Amino acid sequence: MKPFFFLVGLVAISGSGGTLSRGEEAHVSVYVVDHSTEFASMGGACLPYTPTEKTGKERELLCVGKGPAGSTLLMMAFDRDLPYLDLAPVLAPQTADSEPLRFPAEGITWPYDKPGPAVDLYVAVFLNDDPALARIAEYVEWLGESLKQGDKETAMLHALAIKNRLSNILRQRKVDDYRVTFGSSLADSIRDAPASKAAVTRSGKSALLTGTTEEPKSPVAAVRRGLKSLNEQWREDARVISFGLATPGVLVFPITTPIAP
Fold first, then answer.
1. pTM of this prediction?
2. 261, part of any domain
3. Is residue 239 part of a domain?
4. For a Cys-Cys bond, which of 38, 66, 207, 261 suits 180, CB 3.0-4.6 Å?
């Protein structure tokens, strides 16, 4: 199933797929994709994003995520209250056999070619019958239409409405720690480690919306993965988003670029 910008027939989808009632988990990874000629055979080299990863004219950012069947995943990048680079959010119901959701959507790129403003990448997961989802889905649809029409003023209003609703979810959860923190070990990572030895660095504070703290794990080297095989390997680098009945999960990746020399 290809990702789309809004839910068609949301009521019907909710009625058939919203069967989860206990705590569940979605997974999400963010990569810097290098399309340099040397990585052409891989379709591009994917490195887990860290704030120290260098920019380049052939580099872009990519978010990959998947939720359990019966859930819906939302991805959107904000430059303050605006959609960053006019990138439309992606919103799609998850099934057992659906492909991992990608942001930006297929055919659209998020350049990582030069220093830019700080950006917040929001990834949210809802049960399909969560009452908070229907309204957000409407705003996502309206935002997508406004961006296509080049109506920036209306797009700003819809984007702000989405961000306010996501912020309200965070306030209702009463959890202070929802932003992803990046371990410093990745800055000195060894490139091109064999995929069989891949592991994920989860040092530092937990960014889950559960109010609990994940046990830090030993720092390991980041692994360069091929874009062609990313669908089979991205979970090795994934962060977890916990959610449940009437308790959507939200994780925020603060995206920054190194200071220009």
1. 0.77
2. no
3. yes
4. 207
